[in-house]
Amino acid sequence: MNYRAKFSFGAPALFVMAGSMFAVGTQAQDIDEFTALESPGQWEFLNEYCTECHNTIDYSGGVDFTLMSIDGVPDNADVWESAIRKLRSRMMPPAGQPKPEAARNDEFVAWLENYLDEAAGQRDNVHPITIHRLNRKEYANSIRDLFGLHIDPASLLPEDDTSEGFDNIAAALQVSPAFIDQYVSAARQIMEQSVGDKTPSLASTTYRSELPLAARAEGGGVQQGHIEGLPLGTRGGMLVEHWFPADGEYSISVANFDVSLWKYNVEFENTMIFTIDGEKIHEVTLGGPEDMAALARDQTGPQQEFDARTKDIRFTTTAGPHSIGITFLRRSFAESDDRLQPHLPGTTQDRILSFSSFEVRGPFNPTGISETPSRERIFRCYPTEVSEEAACAEEIINYFAYRAYRRPLNEADKRPLFEFYDAGYANGGFEEGIRLALTRVLASPNFLYRAELAPLDLEAGSIYEISDLDLASRLSYFLWSSLPDEELLNLAVAGELSEQSTLEAQVRRMLADPKSDSLASNFAYQWLELSALEEISPDENIFPYASIAGDLRPDFVREIELFVDSIFREDQSVLRLMDADYSYLNERLALHYGIRTVRGNRFRRVELEDSVRHGLLGKGGVLMATAYPNRTSPVLRGAWILETLMGTPPPEPPPDVENLAENELGEQVQTVRERLEQHRQNPACYACHAVMDPLGFALENFDAVGHWRERDRFTTTLVDSSGILPSGEEINGPDQLRQALLERPEMFVQTFTEKLMIYALGRGLEAEDMPLVRSIVDAAKADDYRFSSLLLNIVNSDAFRLNRAPEQVSMNQGESTASQTVGL
């Protein structure tokens, strides 16, 4: 993993660690108590404890405190903010040097924070927000809210670059000519689906099971349980949503079954059923004595006949999205001789059929286009006579351009749209004109970019309050990852959104809307670095229980999304992210956690009796994302805690340091702890590992896939989860680790607030932003750090409400490019 070292001095590894969970002794006194303290008395702290290393000769970490003065503190805010983190963590002064008493350390930190905060109040720290392209998630959500169409943005648009850990950072969302081509192509495809095509060509789509072949072959994973959304009394199969381009006849064909499975899985009859929107359209029997006998005599002929039963299943349906289900009727356990108890990790259900994929083809004879959700939204009016077409077209185009551009239209906006309508109308009539005009809307920079244009009479560099329309877009893409709805947009047009009471009411309304789940699926997913799960495939030889039941990673992610969403939506204290005694589980995940009371694939809220699973530290997704495919990694887990929970990223390891040695055949097997002890003997490694490793060791009872264990798999010895923090505090296991992290909650809340602000603003934070962060955290303390308190303070901050005028940005070039590229 690459851990950012944003506030590091950029030198010895020891100097970049921070995190108040290591501090011992008294809590920091109230900042107001230090306002009147004499600065020279505080400055003496540096001479006594810091200048031994940070001087002109040693210049440790590239810092020389002997050349700095009190008056220059605000001008070197990045250095002093870094010092605050190090001192709070008790990582400075380094080992072997005299250390101040905890009370004096906290006194100096509080004075320094107060000094920086007061200085910040005398400066304008507004950073310009550059033009902001919609990322793939924002684009897909905007299409969903405009047209009621769910698209897969990964299949249409290039991958977004990330910065500061997020994919919505304006400076990273660059555009090349290739991007423009793909956005135009995406616009064409989206409008073809949304408006429909009365004469579509024959096409096919193949859907594949997410399960690995080994799991399917042994009847594992979802093939042995009920899939939510399929009829009760069924097990296994697949359920997908497919977009049908027109009314007409289509076919479904299930892929060939593996011949090698037959002798195991056709002993008993299996009834396969096919459904469209939950209604059965076909049923076929597979297996039983006759099929078993035929396959025993000759596999080739019977195999082909067997496969033909699930090929070219014809049905008719209407245009638009429909769910396709293929599943098996569940036999009784007595009939199949399968075990009667629930399936546990590492076990499978015997003698059941499964399949890997199916194909949908058609339409074979399209008969028209029925009303679809997208057409119902688009055709707000529909002309019955030619004389009504122009007025209806104007109503449709103006409405969707208004919503897509997130502002009222001017004549320059309308002109190219109606030119495209006229061109489409000439070639294919009213509907073709609408399709082409709305394609032009989606290809416009006015849709693809969020451009906050400063008032024309402002000079570059001037600070101004953003308009209500820009505020509406900032809010909606922050809370929903999508465009403003009509209520929000209409308030902005009326100039009422920026009124304090209205703004707060709208924020609370938006949080209550289901679309705010993007804060969990987008913000929290990236903050917690869950994308690491996509790169990890656990070793099935070591962890068979993590694969035989199917891929657990989607379940891990869904659990965390639902858990985080509950904290946000219920407006709990964000500290509950660390210690909440509940989670969201389905049967498969519950069994992985050793819980036997959950049945079915549906996720539901479950009270956790075992405290080791409380909060984020007990979530399987976090534990797997911070491990290797074949073993745990106290280093990765410790580094993840430092950066993600405490805002103190460790540095990259020195380039000449070897990786941790693995166990070799013929040598005595060692635990990860024993190998790390050897690794830490290297002086270049000790300083960092002394901080990271104890945190990771506390989670060692969780294996690499988040399963609880008492003994090491390779040595069979009891797992040692003890450690000593730099403060000297001893911890043992996840409960004591969690308690240590929460002893000074403001550090976790500050880290959470920093991450949320980065996501909200679409830019990285600078040292000059830290006084604002501290003020937001301090204001939320009286409200027990409730999520809404932090959120509302961010939304009401100058960072969110103000902007600095850059050089004038022109959209005309982009508009010209879009018009030429669409060129339909």
Helix proportion range: 40-55%
Distance between the termini: 46 Å
Mean pLDDT across every amino acid position: 84
DSSP strand content? 5-15%
Unreliable spans: 1-38, 211-222, 258-264, 333-350
Provide structural commentary.
- The chain is of the alpha+beta class and 824 residues long.
- Among the domains are: 13-120, no CATH class; 203-362, Jelly Rolls (Sandwich); 519-741, no CATH class; 745-804.
- It is 41% helix and 10% strand.
- The chain is built from 33 helices and 16 strands.
- Strands 2-9-4-7 form a four-stranded antiparallel β-sheet, with no helix packed on it. The chain has a four-stranded antiparallel β-sheet with strand order 3-8-5-6, with no helix packed on it.
- Strand 5 (270-276) and strand 6 form a beta hairpin.
- Helix 6 (177-195) crosses helix 33, helix 13 packs across helix 14 and helix 20 packs across helix 21 (553-569).
- The model is unreliable at 1-38, 211-222, 258-264 and 333-350 (pLDDT under 50).
